[in-house]
Records
---
Amino acid sequence: MSARRSRWAAFRSAPFLATVTGLYLVWSLAPVLIAVLFSFNDGRSRTQWQGFSLRWYVSDPLRSVWNDPSLHTALVHTFRLGVVVTLITVPLGTLMALGLDRWRGRPPAAANFLVLLSFVLPEILLAVALLFVATTLTGTFFGDVVRLGTVGQVLGLVTYQLSYPVIIVRARLLTIGAHYEEAAVDLGASPVGAVRRILLPMTMPAILASAVLVFADVIDDFVLVRYLSGGSTTEPVAVKIYNTARAAPTPALNAVATLVLVASLLAVSLGYLAYRLLTRGEGGQTAGIDVFAGEA
Amino acid sequence: MAEPRQRPRWLWPVLALPGTAWLLALFVAPLYVVLALLFGGIDPILRRPVPVWNPAQWDPSQFRYVLDHLTGSQGFFGPPLVRTAIYVGIARALCVLIAYPVAYYTARIADRRRGLLLAALIAPFWISYMMRMLAWVNLLQNDGLVNNVITLGGLWDTRVDWLGGHASVVVLGLVYGYVPYMILPLYAGLDRIPTEMLEAGRDLGASRFQTWRRVTWPMSRQAVLTAIVLTSLPMLGDYFTADLLSGNPSTSMVGNLINSAVLTPGQTGEAAAFVMLVLLVSLLPMAVYVRATRAGEEIRT
């Protein structure tokens, strides 16, 4: 009885707000769930349910994700970008966060400003700028480095994602404070040793969190990867969806989108669990969920 | 007690250097290339844009061409810009109307299942934007679920060609796409307000609404502003929502102008001009965001 009362207590104390929140959740999640459901449809339709099958994932000999080379390529390319960009961005951003947090003066303030700017700048502006570097500066060093295809995509995505680890790791450094590494230095550790033995382990939860966030964000990216792709072999899933969504696609498109969705949510959930495990006993009401909302 | 050992000054700059250099080379320099192309020339034979690096030699004719076609009888660039302002304005207002109550409920009222609720609110954040638009294309296409429902399964012929160029559908897409980005900063802002402040309001005899108006709202205004900035900026560069949910020139936004100019050979200057326009419009909200973040950091340190 008392359990039931407390279950409905929140609803009773604000029925209007609770209803709005409930309706919002349905509206925000139901369309996606329906799209996922129809990836398991036995027929060609994306609106008429014709029974459950894995036809669009594996068994259709021509158009399933497994057998259609274009979908297959897009999926592999999506994950390749996710892994490579995460491996570059996270170390680069972590070092930058350590440096910017402890270095005092004007230059780090300017660099920090640059990080925030790259975080809020509309993505299309960076995408167009890099595309122009690749297409109009051919023959120069700059234009040859930033070239369309995987290389350009990786360079662009790292630039766009760099602010994530910097912001998240810095937020963690602020909560740690400076006394642990000062103690280590007082006890005879070298400055580099203090960073390696004290700061890196203590910021590990934030590093891990930013890694899964960067990965999940990269496999969902559309704007940068579309402009910087060098043809159909370097078009990831998001671009595939854009190209075919309005051109009578089969449920295989829903299937490939579902696979990316599962990977993305899985990465974030596992990352979150690991984060909780690493920060066990530190308290905090939201238990770090705000970090996973990109809201550090 | 011995003086604490002085840590070397070189360590932190060295750690920060690679990231900073990366941003200078691949963030600042490319934006300068856009400027150099915008105020540069065009190779008369190859019709290729030629960047001019020295600002003293910049030629404003390409920029002026775009500005001249914003208004008047030749003003074909004007309508999409006005439309962008209207769409983004409406979408932004709807986002606040939806996001504020949801964030308020989550932060203030939901207690037992708050973690689960937060996870559900965050989920769309980690679902690809294209997947979410594809979901709406599925629902709104001519034989889609929405039409099936409003015709009661074909009983009436009240089919609507939802994806044929409706402004309202594009605005719906923008709201659907960007509202999660608004809920989270709002939640964070509301969650930070100390409970004691609200209890004090209630103890002094204010009703819940009065407490909200006199305490919560003033204390959450900064979060609302940040949330508006965080949702408006990506909307300004959005072209894919209009493309997927309408595909009709009558609903094209400034992002569509950029996109089509980028993909058309010989219109590099135009694309560069639009990029600079969006950048100029974005500067003020970006400054607001950066200032708010800085202020927050100063309080925390």
---
Amino acid sequence: MKRNTLVVSAALLAAITGRAGAQAAGASAAPAAQQAAADTALDARTNAVAVQLRCPVCQGVSIQDSPAELAQQMRNLVREQLRAGKSPDEVKAYFVSKYGEWILLQPRASGFNILIYALPVLVVLGGLAVIVVAMRRWTKPPENLSI
Amino acid sequence: MNWKRSLIAAVTAVPVILLFAWGFTRDPGEIPSPLPGHAAPQFSLDVFAPGQPPLSRPVGDTVRLADLRGQVVVLNFWASWCGACREEHTVLSTTARLYTGRPVHFLGVLYNDSLAAGEAWIAEMGGQSYPSMQDPGARTAIDYGLYGVPETFFIDGDGRVAYKQLGPVTGVGLAHIVDSLIAALPPKPAAPATKSRS
Amino acid sequence: MIGPFAYDALLIALPILVLGIVLAPVAVRTGRREWIPVVYSTLYTNFLLVSTATVAMIVALVTHDFSVSYVAQVGSRATPLFYTVISLWGALEGSILFWAWVLALYGSVVVWLNRNRPGNLIPYTALALLAVSLFFGILLVGPANPFHPVFPIPADGPGPNPLLQNHILMGVHPPLLYLGYVGMTVPFAFAVGAMLSGEVARDEWIKLSHRWTLVSWGFLSAAIIAGMWWSYEVLGWGGYWAWDPVENASFLPWLTATAYLHSMVLQERRGMLRLWNVNLVVGTFVLTVLGTFLTRSGIISSVHAFTVGVIGYYFLAFIALVLIAALVMVAGNSDRLRTSGRMDSAASRETVFLLNNLFLTAFMFTVLIGTLFPLIAEAIRGVKVSVGAPFFNRMTLPMIVMLLFLMGVGPALPWRSATAAEMRSKLLPPLVGAFLFCVGALVAGARNFYGVVAFTFVGYAAVANLREYWIGLRARRNAHGEGWATALYRLIRGNQRRYGGYLAHLGLLIAALGVAGSSSFRREREMTMKPGDTLTVAGQTIRLKGVWGREEVQRSVIGATVEVLKNGRVVGVIEPRMNYYPTSDQPVPTPQVRSTIGGDLYLTLMSFDPNGAHATIRAIVQPLVSWIWFGGGVIVLGALIGMLPARRRPNGSLSEPDVVPVRGAVVVETAP
């Protein structure tokens, strides 16, 4: 009974996500719809790069989120460069060459910067190790009592 | 009370405190530009404010950085809504006029502003001796890594950005930089080849 | 007149505080117990003096007494009364005065409630409170003096920062934040008192400070949610958390305090984690000092930063002293604190609490290192780097979803040990919730990995926590035949900390749903519209009716009237606007939100034509945002339940034994 439930649920899950995927594929049939879909795709790609770039005139928000005029203009530039065929990394490299590393909202994972990515992982792993060792000690049966 | 352990623990605080103390010695808001020392980004912008003779250019004239190679260029980004730009306006205008005939070009670039507002501002300030250009979509501003206005770029005779000034320029500083850049220019040929300007 | 008078009050407070600080150890060491009430009264006197100064400041603000420097800085005759009063905490000096007042209040109440307790714990606790009060007292008569006389007396002032006049939540978020932040000084003071008095191996200090920790945690939780709500409604980008350094500063102590609320239970039940708990308590306070140092020193740029000055050096000295003193005390007492823990089995609630502490601490560490990294990188590499939302989201989302999952496992597992059968009967049923939420999210169109995982775990944990209520209710009804309402009331009263905790979990899960929903399903569009144009985003249609301008007392406003349409009918009107304040040449874009249970329609006026011919409107549709604020309220309710005094039973115990059925047998369980 339980196994059947699982099988049915899995099939249902696959059907739902599959159907949603099929819908997306069907939408790109007609050419006009194709253009709209391409635009949406470009929007999404612009979005993905824009959230990585810091707005130079605001405090800490990305050019995607910032209402500032310069941020909007930078977004347009990102969109243009992506449409012209540049890769996201090339677009980011362009902005870094103009504004410095500061323009990236997360540090490039190279050299010293690796620390900021590695340390949290090490803390979690180290903490887990400490807990395992401590729990071994704590769950050990007490030393033999004289009976 | 385990004093040995206390001492070791206290020592670990020292680098943290030193880091914070060091933090006071610099300004977190000041972002150094990667441009100085590198080739100045090319631009091709149209004049909207002609400036005044003898430095003026016609409205609609296209100014290309490539055409100015071999001479010093002072590129100043400004806007009518920018308070600090008012401070440096007189300095720039007067200095530009003083250097008439020298191998240096003063150029203004309007940043995120309407042409009408820019023209009105120039009129209000009593005129600008050198021409100002428009920068649609702030493409040139972004190319120069602009954070805001005013920012002034000093381009040497080899087309490299020698120096970037954040905030308003001062009279003494301006003259000093321009003089040193002119002095560094390669010597001119004996018979000057005059180019007709379009 | 009122300025010098208030300044004198603050000045007199200093020698009084010093007297208390000197007298406390002397009284204890020499055995002169009659001096201890004198020590306590220095705290009360300080409270009276600081209160006098605070009231004086409010009076000066309301009467527009511009001879007082702080009033000249933030006051204005044009500012409405509400914003005038709350400008008390709007700028640096006033905020320090307010901090000092809250600290004095907490200190006096804590000591007064415990004034008759014998022993050395309370005298040394008072010492710690006096020392911290002294620091802020020095600031108030020195670099942060708000009562500096101004001459010649100006006729009017510039008013508060425009961003601080835009929304009434500005009256709510800072007081809550200070009550939470400053409140963390109390458990810290108790820990210091315990260490200095040598009573640290006993748990009395934890019992005494527990309620204060919960109170502060409740305020801090409310403050963070209120801050998110304020920035959402005011800042115009449709987000509520930007991982700005000052947001992080308020969040760090919340994380360690939450860890402490859990690990403290382990200490009470099993005598475990004593040293760790002292570290957490002291660490929470150190993080509050660090947070205030970062805000006020100017060494890290942030949206919140107060104006910088010499006060940064004072805070540097303070954090250095606090850090070193804390490390010396805790490390020095580490031997006394080390106890051998005992656990029966890894399959128990104890394990989940340990993992909870691990992930909360790792979370805190990640946010801390992310916030400080720009400073560190610049010091080591000489290059300025940014650490923003992409980093924090990427590194903390895994930890957050783990914590969501643990929130479902912890309440389900019993203490001490669970058999395989118990684990199955407790851990499997919530899978229904997990499945439903997962399917629901996918059907609704969520495709981001962490979004779907978060929904799944929230479903799991929600069912698990609700089930605990259900099991308890059912047991009571079977055992006592009570009605549902009575059973619920008695259930909660019988163990307020536990059921308050489950409720706080549910509140957090509701808020997590709001966050997951609004980020997974956010849609936005921007369009330049003429009056009469319509724009459709994610099934919502709006129509621009017109652009207008009007003068208000303290500002000029340009706005757009936008109608919300449903099936052609107007169901709502939203007016995003731009507020122009005389002190700033940049307008403050003021968005407007239409909130429903299902989601928010968030409009910002990006630009407009001065002739009213067109306006550029950005429309963001974010589902479930109001669930975040509602969840915050439930969290606070849970904290309230947990902190209220419990009924004391005839046999002296505080909690009623629960009647918990376990497969035919009836197990009586006490404590959380």
